[in-house]
Amino acid sequence: MTRPPRVSILMPVRNEARYLPAALDTIFRQTLTDWELVVVDDGSTDNTPAILAAAALRDKRIRALRCEGGGLVAALNEGLDACRAPLLARMDGDDIAHPRRLELQANLLETDPGIGLTACAFRHFPRPALKQGMLAYEAWQNGLKGHELIMRDLFVESPFVHPSVMMRRNLLLDVGGYRDCGWPEDYDLWLRMAAAGVRFARLPQTLFFWRDHPGRATRTMDEYSHNAFRACKLHHLLSGFLASRKTVIMAGAGLEGRAWQRLLAAEGIVVSCWLDVDPRKTGRPLHGAPVIHPRELRPSGEKMLVAIGVRGAREEFRRLILPMSLREGLDFICVA
Predict the structure, then answer these.
(1) 166-168 and 87-90 strand pairing
(2) % of the chain beyond a pLDDT of 90
(3) Paired residues of 117 in beta bridges
(4) pLDDT at residue 104, as a whole number
(5) Displacement of CA 52 from its chain's centroid (Å)
(6) Contact at 8 Å (CB) between 261 and 305?
(7) What are phi and psi of 81, to 5 degrees?
(8) How far apart are CA 245 and CA 238, in angstroms?
(9) DSSP string of 222-258?
(10) What pLDDT is recorded for position 214?
(11) Is 165 helix (H, G, I), strand (E, B) or coil?
């Protein structure tokens, strides 16, 4: 058997004929050339199989596998089983990688054995039609520049664009590979890795370009809805931060906080107190619990979830409660 390559690139595809040639070209142009590309075609009905067959004939580093519509998670796990390198890079068939992406990510992981996964800065494209929410998500994620900031905001949103990461394959296998639980398979993976003590990093260079289009999985799959994200977060909080808890303080009495209250109630966890700065809400009970200004909070030992969905309000809340010496990650966690 030939020696394994330095990096395995795992790419699940389904009906990607429109964008796949451009994605493959960016892989052919990588400065790191010791790679294999494992493409799993999940039952494509367009010209995707022909494009992959031609690419495999052109370059022996490409292996195209076929699975008949088993879904994204099944395709990822089938491809994972076929990957041979110690380092695994994700890539999708509709995105673009900078020529030095593999080189710089592999160099970081190989020179620092303490890092288990590295992302990089990314940029959405095409830009003209992007809405403010996407631009804000891009800025937020790119601002998580190291492990501590990533861990601080781990329950806010997915801190990585899945096809932009490179990780140690053995760590992915150690936490059980990809799971199909009805919520985002990548976010579920980051949360399991974090619980297992994996250290994260992010290269500051913009090495990945995330194509925005109506057919993108994050726009079309139920697993990426707001409700699915909340369910994923709650599942992991119940096994960690909220383990054995029967009550919780909820910061944010708006729509997001109330959505969380309903989820918690279904698990037998009661919101004992709400925090909000809106004078129209403070002083009135909500679901049987008082709504108070954060300055009125007194030490109680209860855990707190911060579910403030208004853009910019999360940082304002952190500044507001700073004098209380509450420890983020231990006393409170931001979930929005």
Answers:
(1) antiparallel
(2) 88
(3) 167, 200
(4) 98
(5) 28
(6) no
(7) -60, -30
(8) 8
(9) GGGSHHHHHHHHHHHHHTTTTTT-SEEEEE--SHHHH
(10) 82
(11) coil
pLDDT per residue over 252-286, tens digit each? 999 999 999 999 999 999 999 999 999 999 999 99
Q: Give CA–CA dist 291/274, Å, rounded.
A: 5
Give the pairing of strands 289-292 and 285-286: antiparallel
Burial (Cβ within 10 Å: 0-12, 13-18, ≥19) of residue 327: exposed
Q: What percent of the chain has pLDDT over 70?
A: 100
DSSP state of 207: E
Cα–Cα distances in Å, from 249 out to 257, 280, 300?
Answer: 10, 19, 10
Give the model's pLDDT for residue 219: 73
CA-based nearest residue to 95, from 247, 210, 179, 241: 210
Site of tokens 């795992």: 10
The predicted structure's pLDDT at residue 78: 97
Number of CB atoms found within 10 A of residue 12's CB: 28
Name the H helices within the chain: 20-28, 48-58, 72-82, 101-111, 132-142, 147-152, 169-174, 185-195, 217-220, 226-238, 255-266, 313-321
Give the position of tokens 């009906």. Answer: 15
Whose tokens are 């992010």? That residue is: 202
Contact 16, 52 (CB under 8 A): no
Instruction: For residue 19, give Cα distances in angstroms to 47, 110, 243, 268, 329.
Output: 11, 31, 44, 47, 41
